[in-house]
Amino acid sequence: MKFTKMHGIGNDYVYVNCFEETVREPSRVAELVSSRHFGIGSDGLILIKPSETADFRMEMYNADGSPGSMCGNGIRCVAKYVYDHGMTNMTRIRIETGAGIKTLELSVQEGKVTMVTVDMGAPVLTSNGAASSLSCRDREALTPEQIWESITVGGNAYEMICISVGNPHAVVFVDDTDSFPVEQIGPLFENHPRFPDRVNTEFIQVVDQGLLKMRVWERGSGETMACGTGATASAAAAMLAGYIHKETQVKLLGGSLSIAWDPATGHMMMTGPATEVFTGEIIL
């Protein structure tokens, strides 16, 4: 199987062009290629496929083989792949995902994509079992009791804001992300009974109005260098909590993403780089 290794600020995946390749058991292949010692090494597998409703379709699998519906860093890399490899000449494309169709704007320099802006759609507040789309009007009507949810994890009480950006996120604000024990607490959130389908957990430090620091424990992959949907969910949560206004930089272990809220649509816009590392072929 021919593949391309790509990453979005360190959130790395193995990409397969399924216009040319056939992947018959993607969950098994995801586990195989993701192994850092026995495979290629990645946070998962992303397949680039034809779509009947958009320009392309993205199908993703986590490192443990479980399917995922959306990946913010992954979809930017899909956009770079299809443009840089001559599969499209458009700088505005639509990509079908398990979380719906996303529209992307490509920034091109010397014939290569350098930055991509993704319309992540309107996030959905899921704290306390709600399912509230965060349009401008809905945000203004929310009370702190609706926004925040209490949870006990590992014998300790936490306050979190639960957000869906096509996949589930629990956003927890901490004093210092560098010293927070993500490796110990992250799995406890992921497998907590509150989240029967498991959850991605973001641990966020508010530096100032324009900067959040973030570490993330992703369901099925563990701690990763970055998470685009997590950065989007965290910015939305920080806005709901009143820590920031309409835009911010989110600093992750692998780099930074720009997140902005469009008050006209209620959509979150994520901008960041995409990088191709190498291509190769693996015997399955």
Describe the structure.
With 284 residues, the chain is of the alpha+beta class. It folds into 2 domains: 2-118 and 272-281, Diaminopimelate Epimerase, Chain A, domain 1 (Roll); 124-264, Diaminopimelate Epimerase, Chain A, domain 1 (Roll), CATH 3.10.310.10. It is built from 6 helices and 20 strands. The chain has a 20-stranded mixed β-sheet that branches. A hairpin with a 2-residue loop joins strand 11 (149-153) and strand 12 (156-164). The longest helix has 14 residues, at 228-241. The radius of gyration is 18 Å and the shape is globular.
Helix percent band:
10-25%
Per CATH, which architecture of the largest domain? Roll
Query: Which regions are unreliable across 5 or more consecutive residues at pLDDT < 50?
Result: none
Number of strands: 20
Question: Could you give the order of the helices and strands?
Answer: EEHEEEHEEEEEHHEEEHEEEHEEEE
CATH class of the largest domain: Alpha Beta
Biggest beta-sheet profile: 20 strands, mixed
The CATH topology of the largest domain corresponds to: Diaminopimelate Epimerase, Chain A, domain 1
Provide the residue-averaged pLDDT: 95
Tell me the span between the first and last alpha carbons.
7 Å
Shape: globular
Number of DSSP helical runs: 6
